Amino acid sequence: MPQVRNPILPGFNPDPSILRVGEDYYIATSTFEWWPGVQIHHSKDLANWELVVRPLTRKSQADLRGDPDSCGIWAPCLTHDGDRFWLVYTDVKRKDGSFKDTHNYIVHAPAIEGPWSDPVYANSSGFDPSLFHDEDGRKWFSNMMWDHRRRPHLFTGIALQEFDPQAGKLVGPRKNIFAGSDLAFVEGPHMYKRNGWYYLLTAEGGTGYGHAATLARSRDIWGPYEMHPQKHIVTSKDAPLAALQRSGHGDIVDTPDGRTYIVHLTGRPVGQKRRCVLGRETAIQEAYWGDDDWLYVKNGPVPSLYVDLPGARDDTDYWSEKRYTFEDGLHKDFQWLRTPEPERIFSTEGGKLTLFGRESIGSWFEQALVARRQTHFSFDAETTISYAPDDERQFAGLTVYYCRYNFFYLTVTAHADGQRELLIMSSEASWPGGKLESPGPAAIQIPNDGKVKLAVTVRGSALQLWYALEGKELEKFGPVFDATIVSDECGGHQVDGSFTGSFVGVAASDCNGLAKSAQFDYITYRPIEHESDRYEPRRE
């Protein structure tokens, strides 16, 4: 079998849930505050993946306006019961402090493309829900449970309860079936059945560098569950030199010919500060069942950078320059923030991307920002903007964005007298204040008419902004910034509390409340090979 280099889903694609239906594989990943909710990729060979649908598209399924950064849609679980697809997910309204407001829902569809149903509310006792279809036709719903009292832990265990699809609700008793190991922070449950054993795969250790996937089993679905001989079947916590770090939160799949694989989230830190600018990604490992009926990861538990897969990966599209135009609407690579009413923030009528200025960049309610994932350590991005702001409260332009507290934003705006300006706004790990920095030349005047070309180049940890007036060549504007600021490690929460990834795109704000519009002709994204793409782990 050909060897494929991890990750299989580069860039912000965390918390993978994998499923095979016939010859088709699907992976669902978390999208947090980005809309539409949940990404589902498809593959025939586990090596080559294509985004096929984001199933949460309606206000009735989720409304993320007001959800703080790194809240929203967490840890979807995608399953199939032989008749239809089922998707369970959490909408997180609050995550910081002693309390978490986490509402769990269930939707279903006859085909992966949909139509996806309106949600059935399940519970709010915790997050990371999962749905298991037993051989006798019963369905079991599990999620981690949260205990604000810390008796003895905030992450108090995995709850199990039966789901009745006809009644549309959870029924019968609820039991804490698994408290986790001494690594703590037990979450992300997935359940399986094999040879009379119920297997429970969980994530532990938090989603930072101590992360792990833990396996347990029982003859009875209600437990008690015994721990795997290795305890953690995937982890990098004791291997700081491994290429794939922060490894855990996984799911298991079998191939038609009987091979077994586990997908898991991972991060690839860069630089001495070990920052994951591409966020949490999805990797895959080959596994096998031992004579003791336990699952083992090949060469594990430390994840391998290269893995034997049924297919060879074609990286042509991954390394190709993308020039996005808007004659056929918004390309599927792009998402926006929180709102299920995109017509209020953008339009592609007339073949241009028009943003309607709403709230300020970083708003948790309604900001006009459309962007795609950063999936390479180095890249170029460029756009051309037509925009006539009236004053300093109207601004639009090109942004590299992580969250309210971490972004770089090259804007066209105006002074109070209406004179158009070019202005850099940057927020560099500004939690909790959320204040702007004032780097380099604060602003330069530009003519009040004519298009402006805006660009950014990222080379590893170095980020440079550029601009050009009509008929002119691009020139640098502002200092060289630290590109690793737009990373989980700088995301504006306590340690291991930021969960998304870097995006690059366009935005518009009108703090006058007049919805001043900005037009963008195109957006280009050009991958550049970087030394991190050639990194090989040290051989012990």
From TrEMBL:
GO MF, one example: hydrolase activity, hydrolyzing O-glycosyl compounds
Extent of the signal sequence: none
GO biological process, one term: carbohydrate metabolic process
Entry keyword annotation includes Calcium: no
Residues forming the catalytic site: 15, 187
Residues of the Beta-xylosidase C-terminal Concanavalin A-like domain: 326-526
Alphabetized UniProt keyword annotations: Glycosidase, Hydrolase
Lineage: superkingdom: Eukaryota
Pfam families reported in the protein's UniProt record: GH43_C2, Glyco_hydro_43
Site note Important for catalytic activity, responsible for pKa modulation of the active site Glu and correct orientation of both the proton donor and substrate, residues: 128
Keyword set includes Nucleus: no
InterPro entries xref list: ConA-like_dom_sf, GH43_C2, Glyco_hydro_43, Glyco_hydro_beta-prop_sf, Glycosyl_Hydrlase_43
PANTHER family in the cross-refs: BETA-XYLOSIDASE (PTHR42812), BETA-XYLOSIDASE-RELATED (PTHR42812:SF12)
Protein family according to the UniProt entry: Belongs to the glycosyl hydrolase 43 family.
Name of the protein: Beta-xylosidase
Species, as recorded: Emericellopsis cladophorae
